Amino acid sequence: MIHMNQFQDVERMKTRALALMLSFAVAGVLIAAPKFEADVLPYFQTHCLGCHGEKKQEGDFRIDKLSRNVGKENVPQWAEVMERISSGEMPPKKVKTPPAAKESAVVVEWLAARIKEGEAARMAQRGRVSYNRLTREEYVNTVRSLIGVHFDATDPSGFPEDPEWHGFERLGSVLTLSPSNIEKYLAAAEVILAEAYPAKKPVFLESSKRAVPADHIDEPHRERLRDLGLLDKVRFEMWAGDIFRGSGSESLPEAGIYEISYTLSGLRPEKSRAPRLLVYENSLDRVLFEQDILAPEDKPITVTFRAHLPKGRPNINVINNVPGLSNNFRSGRHANKPFISTSDGRVPWQMKLTDEQGRPRYPFLILDSFSWRGPFITEEEQRRRDEYWPSENGNLEQVRTGLGKLGADGGNRALIEKYAAEIAAAPKDEKINNVDSLLIGYRGKLIFESYYRRGRANFPHYQMSITKSYTAMAVGRAIQLGLLKMDDLDKPAISFLKELDIAKLVAGADKITLAQAMQMSSGIRLADKKAKGLIENPAQLKGQGEIQAYLQYSEPIPAAPRAFKYQEPDTAIAMQVLSAVAPGGAEEFIKNELLKPMSITQYHWESAISGLPKSAAGSSLLSRDMLKFGQLILNKGKWQGQQLIPEAYLARATTPSQVNEHYGFFWWVDDFTVGGKNYHSFQGRGAGGQFIFMFPELDLVAVVTSHNKGMGDTLKTLPQRIIPAFVQK
Question: Whole-structure pTM over 0.85, yes or no?
Answer without folding.
Answer: no
